[in-house]
Amino acid sequence: MSIESLVSRARHICEVNGARFTSIREKVFRLLAGTHGGIGAYELLDQLKLTEPAAKPATIYRALDFLTEQGFIHKIESSNAFLLCHHFEEHHPAQLLICDRCNHVEELHSTPLQQEFHRLASEKGFLIQRQTIEAHGICQLCLKKEANG
Q1: What tens digit of pLDDT does each residue of 101-136 get?
Q2: Which of 128, 109, 6, 118 is nearest to 67 (CA)?
Q3: Structural domain ending residue among the three candidates 66, 84, 102
Q4: pLDDT in tens, 1-46
């Protein structure tokens, strides 16, 4: 999906939700849309400063908070990085496969896994309010490289 298409969808969702998709928020969204895998806030800040020289860490963190609240991105907790979600029309829990070699991140959507996790939490009297499940390992491409080299 093209970055323009993603931006258009995000704008529409913001309009429907009455949220402001400011130019800074859009620029950070575009940077995330052009990144494969996760990226840290300071890396984003360095990229944003190319067009917004006055940008500060707070600028990035406010934009990332907004994009997270809107469901446009997921935070990769284990690496303190952020990842654009390509199915942001509805909020959903994130299940991420993270390659420890090339840093590729694959997002999964398993309803049975989510339901079982919520059931187990409920048995313990725990109400899950947000959820990210991360699995670290080696992706298929890196496994192929290893086998061939």
Answers
A1: 998 999 988 888 989 999 999 999 999 887 889 999
A2: 6
A3: 84
A4: 799 999 999 999 999 999 999 999 999 999 999 998 899 999 999 9
Structural domain of 117? 94-148
Q: Using CA atoms, how far apart are residues 77 and 83, in angstroms rounded to an integer? A: 11
Amino acid in the structure at residue 45: L
Q: Are 7 and 29 in contact (CB under 8 A)?
A: yes
Rounded CA-CA distance 79/148 in Å is 29
Same domain for 7 and 63, yes or no, is: yes
- Three-class SS state of 100: coil
Q: Is 148 helix (H, G, I), strand (E, B) or coil?
A: helix
Residue 98 has, within 13 A of its CA and on its CB side, a CA count of 23
Task: Give the integer Cα–Cα distance in Å for 104 and 146.
Answer: 16
Residue with tokens 């800040």: 45
Q: Are residues 18 and 74 in the same domain?
A: yes
In the chain, the number of structural domains is 2
Confirm whether 50 is domain-assigned: yes
Q: What dihedral do alpha carbons 44, 45, 47, 48 form, nearest 10°?
A: 110
